[in-house]
Design brief:
Number of strands: 19
CATH class of the largest domain: Alpha Beta
Shape: globular
Helix content: 40-55%
Largest sheet: 9 strands, mixed
Radius of gyration: 30 Å
CATH architecture of the largest domain: 3-Layer(aba) Sandwich
Strand content: 5-15%
Number of helices: 29
Strand order of the largest sheet: 1-2-17-16-7-6-3-4-5
CATH superfamily of the largest domain: Phosphofructokinase domain
Distance between the termini: 65 Å
Structural class: alpha/beta
Number of domains: 3
C-alpha cells in the first residue's frame, strides 16, 4: 500500500521549542479541561437527615436475620448488632455534642478493584469530619489493605479531596487486593492503627472486603477501634436483604456507572453493526458470579442477544426428560443448560436474522456465564478441590510441578486410574477424565489455570466468548452445509439483478426460492447450497441453456444468499470501572461517606454504611448502618468452608428480568426493518435527560408497586 505525506507547515527544533512554550499549547494539552473542572466543583445533594448538624443512631428492630452459628462463634461481639437508622438530632445534649465533636483520626482504605464513586465516599467522610471538628484527621492507607499492614498512608487534605471529588478510579490512595485474614496480619494492622491513634477505619470494598471488615471489627473490639464497611462492586452482587426479604441496600456503588459505560460502548457497536452489516459483535461484560451488568446493559442498549447466566442455570430440557421417561430412565443432564444446547440457541437466532437479510448483530455475554453451565460447574468444583488439596499437602504448588498442559492432563489420568483401584476416591473418575479430554485444549488450559487469591476460578481470564462462539461457528458451518443457514435476499434486489441480466424473475423465483413469491426476503431452497447443487436444480427444472452454465445474474443472486459469519470480540470491564461516575453514583457515594461519619461519631462498629430505598428515588433515601456479621454464611473457598458475605445473583422472577425476557423476540429483530437498538447517550454529571437510577432498580420497584 502506497502512502504520502500531506503537505503542511513544517517546524524545526527551535520552532518546536517556541511552540511548546506558548500558553495556548499548554491550554490545549492541559490535563485540566473545563468539563473536568465543572465536575470537581459539583457538590452532590444530600439526604434530608444530613441537613442537621447532629445525628443519632436509632436501633431498628423490624429487621430479622438468620445468624449462622459459625458467625456467632467467630464474631461474638458484633453478631447481635441491630440495624441502625440515622435520625436528625436538633436538640442534642451537651454530652452528645462533646462526643460528636471530639477530635478523631479516621482511616480510609480502598480494597479490591476500582468502582466509580469511591473518591466521593472519602469526600463525604472528610467533609462531615471537618464540619464536626476542623481538628479531625482523615488518613488514607495506600495500595489497599497492604497500607494498613505495612503502615503506609497519606494525610487526606482539602486540596486532595477537591482534586478527586466526583472523579473516577481510586487514584487518590490507590487500591489493592490483599486480605487481612490471618492472625499475623490482624496483629500488624492493630499495631498500625494503634500507633497512628486511629479511632475508626472505613473499608471501602466488595463482599470479601466487608467480610474482612467484620473480622477486623471483632479483633479490635476490645481496643475500642471502630471498623466499618462500605459496599462497592461494579458487578452489583452486593445487595442486602434481611431474612424476610426486606431490601436494605438494593445495589452497591459503581454498578450504575459501569453499566452505563458498557451500554454506551455497546450501543456504538450496535450502530456499527447495522451500518457495516457484516459483523456479529461478541461483547463480554464483567460479572463473574452474577449477570446484573449484562441485564442492565440489555435494558440500556437492546442488543440482539443477551445471555443471563441465572436463566441458563434454571433451564430444563423437557424433550430430554420425556425421552428418558419413555425409556423408563432419568436423564439428569436435562436439568441445566449444556454448552452444546446453548450454542444451538445462539445459532438459531443468527440463522433467523440472516433469513431476513441481517447477517450481523450484537451478542452480550457475562464473563461468568460458564459458571452457570452445569457440566462446566461440575468440572470447576472438582478441579478446585484437586488443586486446593495438592497445594495444601505439597511444599510446591500444582502449577509449579505441572507447568505444561500435558503434565496436568497426565496427573488427572493418574487420579482417574486411582479411582478404579480405590472405590472411596471419587473426586476424579474415568468418566470425568473422558469428558474432560473431549474439551478443546485451550479450554482445558483455561479450566486448569491458577485460581485467584480467594481460591476462585478466574473467569475473567477465560476466553468465554471463544469457547461459546467456537461451538457456534462449528454448528453454523454444519447448518450452511445443510442449506439451513442462508441470507435472505430482498425481493426488490433480486428483481433488479434479474432484470439487469435480461432474465424473468417470475420464472426463476419458484425454482430458486422456498418462499416465493410472497416474502419480502427470499430464502434460497435448502437443496441449493453450492454452485454444483444450484446447477443441478436449474438443470432439473430445464432452466439452463445449451451451454449448461448458470446465468451470471442467477449466480450473483446465489452468492448474495451465502453467508460469511464474521465476528469481532470485545471485553468490557476495566474501562467501565475506571469511568467518571454518573450523577447517581456521585450522589450515592457522597451520602455513603456522610453515613459512615455519622456511624463513627455514634461509636458504631462492625456495620456497613448503606442507603435504603435507592430504588424509590432520592427523596426517599434513608441512610442506615447494617450489621455485617448476621449477613455472613459458610461458603467453600480454596477447598474449605469460610465465613463470607453472600453474593446476590439475578432473580429470574424479578420484573427487570421478566421485562428483558418479554422483549427478547423484539430485540432479536428477526424481521424485516430496522433494529430497535437504544442509545443511552454519554454519561452526564448534571443528570438531566438521563435515568436517575439503574433501570433494573426502577423496573423492579415499578413491578413491586403493581403487585
Amino acid at each position: 500500500m502506497s502512502t504520502k505525506t500531506t503537505p503542511g507547515p513544517k517546524v524545526d527544533n527551535e520552532g518546536l521549542e517556541k511552540l511548546l512554550a506558548t500558553k495556548k499549547i499548554r491550554e490545549l494539552t492541559s490535563t485540566s479541561i473545563p468539563s473536568m473542572e465543572q465536575r470537581r466543583k459539583m457538590i452532590p445533594p444530600t439526604c434530608p437527615v444530613f441537613t442537621s448538624p447532629y445525628h443519632r443512631l436509632v436501633p431498628d428492630h423490624r429487621y430479622r436475620f438468620e445468624k449462622d452459628p459459625e458467625a456467632r462463634d467467630k464474631l461474638p461481639d458484633i453478631i447481635d448488632m441491630p440495624v441502625y437508622a440515622i435520625a436528625a438530632d436538633f436538640e442534642p445534649s451537651e454530652e452528645f455534642v462533646a462526643g460528636w465533636a471530639k477530635p478523631r483520626t479516621i482511616g480510609v482504605v480502598f480494597s479490591g478493584g476500582p468502582a466509580p464513586g469511591g473518591h466521593n465516599v472519602i469526600a463525604g467522610i472528610f467533609d462531615a469530619a471537618q464540619k464536626a471538628n476542623p481538628q479531625n484527621r482523615v488518613i488514607g492507607f495506600l495500595l489497599g489493605p497492604d497500607g494498613v499492614i505495612e503502615n503506609e498512608y497519606k494525610e487526606i487534605t482539602q486540596e486532595m479531596v477537591d482534586e478527586y471529588r466526583n472523579m473516577g478510579g481510586f487514584g487518590m490512595i490507590k487500591t489493592g487486593r490483599t486480605k487481612i485474614d490471618t492472625k499475623e496480619k490482624m496483629e500488624r494492622a492493630r499495631k498500625t492503627l494503634k500507633n497512628l491513634g486511629v479511632d475508626a477505619l472505613v473499608i471501602i470494598g466488595g463482599d470479601d472486603s466487608n467480610t474482612n471488615a467484620a473480622f477486623l471489627a471483632q479483633h479490635l473490639f476490645e481496643e475500642g477501634i471502630q471498623v466499618l464497611g462500605v459496599p462497592k462492586t461494579i458487578d452489583g452482587d452486593i445487595q442486602v436483604r434481611d431474612a424476610d426479604g426486606n431490601v436494605l441496600c438494593a445495589m452497591s456503588f459503581g454498578f450504575h456507572t459501569a453499566a452505563r459505560s458498557f451500554a454506551r460502548a455497546i450501543s456504538n457497536l450496535c450502530t456499527d453493526a447495522s451500518s457495516d452489516v457484516k459483523y456479529w459483535h461478541i461483547c463480554k461484560v464483567m460479572g463473574r458470579v452474577a449477570s446484573h451488568l449484562a441485564l442492565e446493559v440489555a435494558l440500556q442498549a437492546h442488543p440482539n442477544i443477551t445471555l443471563i447466566g441465572e436463566d441458563l442455570a434454571d433451564y430444563v430440557d423437557e424433550s430430554r426428560i420425556q425421552a428418558a421417561e419413555r425409556e423408563g430412565t432419568v436423564d439428569y443432564t436435562a436439568f441445566g443448560m449444556t454448552l452444546r444446547h446453548l450454542s444451538r440457541v445462539i445459532c438459531d437466532a443468527i440463522v433467523r436474522r440472516a433469513a431476513v437479510g441481517k447477517n450481523y448483530g450484537v451478542i452480550v455475554i457475562p464473563e461468568g456465564v460458564l459458571e452457570f453451565i452445569n457440566e462446566i460447574q461440575v468440572f470447576i468444583i472438582k478441579l478446585n478441590t484437586i488443586l486446593a488439596e495438592y497445594n495444601q499437602t505439597h511444599d510446591t504448588t500444582f502449577h509449579e510441578d505441572f507447568p505444561l498442559l500435558e503434565d496436568k492432563l497426565e496427573y488427572l489420568r493418574r487420579l482417574a486410574r486411582r479411582s478404579r483401584e480405590d472405590k472411596t476416591f471419587t473426586v476424579w473418575n474415568t468418566r470425568d477424565d473422558d469428558l474432560f479430554n473431549d474439551i478443546p485444549a485451550f479450554f482445558q488450559e483455561g479450566l486448569l489455570m491458577e485460581r485467584d487469591s480467594h481460591g476462585n476460578f478466574p473467569f475473567s481470564q477465560v476466553e468465554t466468548d471463544k469457547v461459546i462462539m467456537g461451538l457456534v461457528k462449528d454448528y453454523l458451518k454444519f447448518l450452511q452445509e445443510e442449506g439451513v443457514y442462508k441470507i435472505g435476499v430482498e425481493k426488490s434486489s433480486y428483481e433488479k439483478i434479474m432484470a439487469e441480466g435480461d432474465l424473468d424473475p417470475a420464472y426463476y423465483g419458484p425454482i430458486l426460492f422456498e418462499n416465493w413469491p410472497d416474502a419480502e426476503y427470499l430464502l434460497m431452497k435448502k437443496s441449493i447450497m453450492s454452485i454444483k447443487t444450484l446447477t443441478q436444480e436449474l438443470s432439473r427444472e430445464g432452466a439452463l441453456d445449451k451451454s449448461g452454465k448458470v446465468p451470471p445474474a442467477v449466480l450473483s443472486v446465489f452468492k448474495k444468499s451465502q453467508p460469511k459469519f464474521k465476528t469481532q470480540t470485545h471485553f468490557f470491564g476495566y474501562d467501565g470501572r475506571g469511568n467518571d461516575p454518573t450523577h447517581f453514583d456521585c450522589t450515592y457515594t457522597y451520602n455513603l461517606g456522610l453515613t459512615a461519619f455519622s456511624l463513627i461519631a455514634n461509636q458504631a462498629t462492625g456495620v456497613m454504611a448503606v442507603i435504603k430505598n435507592l430504588e424509590k428515588g432520592f427523596d426517599h433515601w434513608e441512610p442506615l448502618g447494617v450489621p455485617i456479621a448476621p449477613l455472613m454464611h459458610l461458603e467453600e473457598r480454596k477447598g474449605k468452608l469460610d465465613l463470607v458475605l453472600e453474593k446476590t445473583v439475578v432473580d429470574v422472577e424479578s420484573p427487570a428480568f421478566q421485562v428483558v425476557k418479554a422483549y427478547r423476540e423484539e430485540w432479536l429483530a428477526a424481521y424485516p426493518g430496522p433494529d430497535p437498538y437504544r442509545n443511552p447517550g454519554a454519561i452526564s454529571l448534571d443528570g438531566q435527560g438521563q435515568e436517575v437510577m439503574p433501570l433494573t432498580l426502577a423496573i423492579n420497584h415499578l413491578g413491586a408497586q403493581m403487585r
